[in-house]
Design a protein that fits this description.
The protein has helices at 3-29, 83-94, 160-166, 170-173, 220-232, 241-253, 296-302, 306-309, 348-360, 415-426; strands at 40-41, 50-57, 61-67, 70-75, 79-80, 97-98, 100-103, 119-125, 130-138, 144-148, 155-159, 188-192, 198-202, 208-212, 216-217, 255-264, 267-275, 281-285, 291-294, 324-327, 330-335, 338-341, 344-346, 365-367, 373-382, 387-396, 399-404, 410-413. It has 439 residues and is of the alpha+beta class.
Length: 439
């Protein structure tokens, strides 16, 4: 190559390099468009301003209204609504965002399925104003669905999961609980199962107590479990007609297991449970139509007697640290972080071991009467001096019986538990003297 041609080639290469450098620099200086630049807010409504959601579908219309703070279904038929399901829908609609704009000025809507929308959703706000969105066909990739606002020529896409969350069946949206009571406002629970009906109520400290057949201490964990089972008992709203007939037949021929009545501020609700020969449980509610098969563990939870709900613990202080423990002839008092017996400083570990044994002391069963001579007596003061509990243990033969002061219940105790308690009481000792500091 001639020198002149070489120089020209070098010059052209330099110019080309400069152009590329300038182009790259200009491109770097221009911010890239983010995906959110193409997204649009279709609806912006505060969730607490929703009053009604009307969903017109190709096959039916669903109308959900807020009544006294609770969502109810008005159409296609009056039903209590599943609060969680409707709340999820409200969340989606309150800030409905399009993924992208497909057409700024659509002249034909049939291609998007928006000439006859799959979902035509109208929201009525508490101020009476309305907002509406229409949802059409799925996109070719099924990753989204077409949507538009009435009166606007723009067509958007929304995520497929958004449409799925809005396109619910009536059975999806109905309250599937067999009892719809408010667990925060319960005033009474009655269980008629084994033996006489058991009635539960709460005392001034909001603690469960047995009111009938006689006033007794209740095992709060067991009562809460019963209430939870009743609250969570749900129908299978999608069962076939054959299964519905089987449930009705099973209930009609079954033996009674229990009738539970729950009372809250709105009144009484009742659930009757029966069991067929194959040990399947069926339930009939006073607040929803139909008879439904329910889980075995729910049936078992109701198939209980009075003693299943009685508090078998001898002491109620739980993990509220006692401040005083009185045994026959000796008193231990807590002072700061130390346990004292008169002027003596006691070994904290040995006193704590005694307290643990007292806390865990529980009946294996209940007895009709107590007999024998007293072998152990303890009084525990806790809750900053507000709670004082005294228990006396008697022995007759090889059996131990205990009774709380002021209560009629007789607790029959395991012999080993009493032996362990007496051993812990005997093992309480003075604290070791502090080591002498060397000079």
């Amino acid at each position: 190559m001639k020198p002149t041609g070489l120089l020209i080639a070098v010059a052209l290469l330099a110019v080309l390099g400069g152009v590329i450098w300038w182009s790259n620099k200009k491109q770097a200086a221009t911010p890239a468009k983010s995906a959110t630049d193409t997204s649009s807010k279709l609806l912006t409504i505060p969730a607490d301003q929703f009053q009604e959601i009307r969903i017109k579908k190709l096959t039916e219309t669903q109308d959900l209204k807020l009544v006294d703070g609770k969502w109810r279904m008005v159409e296609p038929k009056p039903l209590a609504a599943d609060q969680d399901a409707v709340t999820s829908m409200v969340t989606s609609l309150s800030a409905l965002t399009a993924d992208k704009t497909i057409d700024d000025n659509a002249t034909g809507l049939k291609a998007y399925g928006l000439d006859t929308p799959t979902l035509d959703i109208t929201i009525t706000k508490k101020d009476g104003k309305t907002a509406e969105v229409e949802v059409g066909d799925a996109t070719p990739t099924n990753s989204g669905s077409y949507a538009k606002l009435p009166g606007s020529p723009k067509v958007y896409t929304i995520a497929s999961y958004v449409k799925t969350g809005l396109d619910k069946t009536t059975n999806d949206l109905r309250d599937k609980r067999l009892l719809t009571f408010d667990s925060d406002k319960i005033t009474r629970v009655v269980l008629a199962a084994k033996g006489a009906p058991v009635e539960f109520g709460k005392n001034a400290q909001n603690e469960w107590q047995i009111l009938k057949p006689s006033p007794l201490r209740a095992d709060a964990t067991q009562v809460d479990s019963l209430v939870s089972k009743l609250k969570d008992t749900k129908m299978d709203a999608n069962i076939s007609d054959d299964d519905t007939k089987k449930a009705a037949a099973g209930f009609a021929s079954g033996t009674k297991v229990a009738i539970a009545t729950v009372s809250d501020s709105s009144g009484d609700q009742t659930l009757e449970v029966r069991k067929d020969k194959d040990k399947n449980y069926y339930a009939k509610s006073s607040v929803v139509e139909g008879i439904y098969k329910i889980p075995t563990d729910t049936g078992d939870a109701l198939d209980k007697s009075l003693d299943d709900f009685r508090n078998k613990k001898l002491f109620d202080f739980g993990f509220s640290d006692p401040t005083k423990v009185e045994l026959k002839g000796v008193t231990y008092t807590k002072s700061g972080d130390k346990w004292m017996s008169g002027a003596k400083t006691m070994d904290n570990g040995s006193v704590q071991s005694l307290i643990d044994k007292l806390r865990d002391l529980a009946a294996g069963k209940f007895a009709d009467k107590s007999a024998g001579d007293p072998v152990f007596e303890a009084t525990v003061t806790s809750n900053e001096g507000k709670k004082v509990e005294k228990v006396t243990i008697r022995k007759q033969g090889t059996d131990y019986f205990a009774q709380r002061e002021g209560e009629p219940s007789i607790y029959q105790l395991d012999a080993k538990a009493v032996d362990d308690l007496q051993s812990a009481a005997s093992a309480v000792k003075e604290a070791a003297p502090a080591p002498v500091k060397k000079k």
